[in-house]
Design a protein that fits this description.
The protein has about 550 residues and is of the alpha/beta class. A six-stranded antiparallel beta sheet has the order 2-1-4-5-6-7. A six-stranded mixed beta sheet has the order 8-12-13-3-14-15.
């Protein structure tokens, strides 16, 4: 229940802190006193839209805070709080919302910041506000279906249905995205496959082009290369035609022998001989390698043509695909291979998704069928219960019926519902089209009373639900609201003395001029028994209190 409310700088409320008891709480006040402002402050705690107009003139921000006594076994609230890492204090929950001058707001639960969405989820489990215009909900099919589900105890089935619907839509969304990808891959598949085949058949190797360029240069100049190599060999090995000049090898051998002879007389000649011998062996190695190069160098026009054709192929592929080297061509080939492989994987994933959607559809259909059967079984007793309540409010011949209609499967199942009503008992039609204002108030009260009983809502606020009724009907509506206060906390904002007299506690909302700055401010205070008598008397007689009105008020209050 709502045990404490604190409001600061909210519209016409400068500062307010008030405690509330259990049971039926009456709130009265003259028109324009600020009752709607009080409801607005509570609505802010329930996640209503915030704006700068809520902040009192001259204030930097407004603050609305409420303390709720809650059932510590409420698993849904516990899961919400634990999911947001909000500390759980068994039995108490403090909800606060601040709005600054720019219109931005912040929400807190037990001093932990939360989003407006989380605040709405929590508040929906704590309090229900029935405003003056909520009779319009009688034409809302979702509201009608929700009321029937409360009566039928379908909360678990509805949660399963909503979950399966979300999961099904997620799968369908994935399938839709996948189809777009598959369509794109299919459109490019033939092109990608042709590109891949061309690159695959080229059998590319890293570093190949550099090797081909070097070989091409050698083949293109093979004749000149052989001429040079032969000339070198000849310089190393050939003597003159007259035989006067020895080859380099013979010359160095002769020089070595002479130096060896001199070593007997000149020790330094020995080192010189070794050096000459070393030079001779190095020149022999050079000659051997030159001869090897000469042997391996061939003039081959066919090989030159083969190399140039290969180079032309690689250059053409690089130009075609905008690649700077063979490595990039190989990378492109591999990516095309992956794309072609991915297309196969996408098709396989699509088949899996379709199977999952089929299974999810079947599961959703089973839950929707179970929900339908539960609603079907509950429709007649629900209608009978509401009809009994309405007839007790001086509509003795009224008829209330519930008609279930087939609807496309959704998060709500596969049903839509129509509430039919007739005050005369004949030809009931859609309740939104047949009831008068007073009748709609009575129907709405009967529905809210039923919801309070089955939804286990800890606090319910009625904002002039008795609009359009008076006299004995008002008295009976007050009794029904009072009965609701036996098992929950009920706030009744009313202008009817018959309803006001039923409450366990009575609060008066009034407006006055603040002498410090001549502003109008709204206040709320709990009335004593004597003050309550005078307030009910005012409601009976108007601004002029008469002895008869006061006596009548005492009679209403104390019997």
């Amino acid at each position: 229940m709502l045990s404490r409310l604190q409001v600061k700088n909210y519209v016409l409320i400068d500062s307010l802190e008030i405690d509330f008891p259990e049971g039926l709480i009456i709130i009265t006040g003259q028109t324009g006193a600020g009752k709607s402002i009080l409801l607005g402050a509570l609505s802010l705690l329930m996640g209503a839209k915030a704006d700068a107009s809520m902040v009192s003139e001259g204030a930097d921000n407004c603050v609305v805070e409420a303390e709720f006594e809650i059932n510590s076994e409420d698993q849904e609230i516990r899961e919400i709080l634990e999911g947001e890492d909000v500390e759980w204090e068994d039995g108490y929950l403090v909800v606060r919302r601040t709005v600054n001058r720019s219109g931005r707001s912040r929400c807190f639960v037990n001093d932990s910041p939360v989003s407006v969405q989380i605040l709405q989820q929590i508040a929906s489990r704590l309090i229900d506000i029935h405003s003056q215009h909520q009779t319009l909900l009688l034409s809302d099919k979702q509201f009608q279906l929700g009321i029937l589900d409360y009566f039928a105890g379908n909360s678990s089935l509805k949660a399963d249905c909503a979950r399966l619907w979300r999961e099904l839509n997620t799968l369908k969304s994935e399938l839709s995205s996948l189809d777009v990808r598959i369509s794109k891959v299919r459109a490019e598949k033939d092109y990608n496959e042709a590109q891949f085949r061309q690159l695959e058949s080229a059998a590319l190797k890293e570093g190949e082009l550099e090797e081909l360029e070097l070989e091409q240069k050698q083949l293109a100049n093979a004749e000149e290369i052989k001429m040079c190599l032969c000339a070198i060999e000849e310089l190393f090995t050939s003597a003159s035609s007259a035989g006067e000049i020895l080859s380099l090898d013979a010359t160095l051998k002769d020089a070595g022998r002479n130096l060896t002879k001199l070593a007997r007389f000149m020790p330094a000649a020995s080192d010189l001989g070794e050096r000459v011998d070393s030079c001779r062996r190095e020149l022999d190695d050079i000659l051997s390698e030159v001869s090897d190069l000469n042997a391996r160098t061939e003039v081959s026009e066919s090989r030159l043509e083969e190399v140039e054709n290969r180079m032309s192929l690689i250059y053409g592929l690089m130009q075609k695909h905008g690649c700077a080297d063979v490595r990039e061509l190989i990378s492109l080939r591999d990516s095309l291979s992956e794309a072609l492989y991915d297309s196969t994987m996408l098709e396989e994933k699509r088949a899996i998704l379709q199977e999952q959607i089929t299974l999810k559809n079947a599961e959703l259909s089973r839950v929707a069928d179970a929900l339908h059967e539960s609603r079907k079984a509950a429709s007649a007793p629900f209608a009978e219960s509401i009809c009994t309540s309405i007839r007790s409010l001086e509509l003795p011949y009224s008829v209330f019926e519930v008609e279930l209609l087939d609807a496309p499967v959704s998060a709500q199942g596969r049903d839509s519902v129509v509430f039919r009503f007739s005050s005369s008992g004949r030809n009931p039609v859609d309740v939104a089209r047949c009831a008068s204002g007073g009748e709609m108030s009575r129907i709405m009260l009967a529905l809210k009373a039923m919801k309070a009983r089955f939804a286990k809502m800890p606090t319910m606020i009625f904002d002039e639900i008795d609009t359009g009724v008076s006299g004995s009907v008002a008295d009976k509506m007050g009794t029904m609201i009072c009965d609701m206060g036996e098992f929950m906390q009920v706030f009744a904002i009313t202008h009817l003395p018959q309803v006001a007299a039923k409450g366990k506690a009575h609060y008066l909302v009034s407006k006055a001029i603040d002498p410090s700055d001549s502003r109008e401010v709204s206040t709320i205070k709990k009335l004593s028994e004597d003050q309550r008598v005078l307030e009910v008397a005012r409601m009976l007689s108007g601004s002029v209190l008469t002895d008869a009105a006061i006596e009548n008020a005492r009679s209403l209050l104390f019997g």
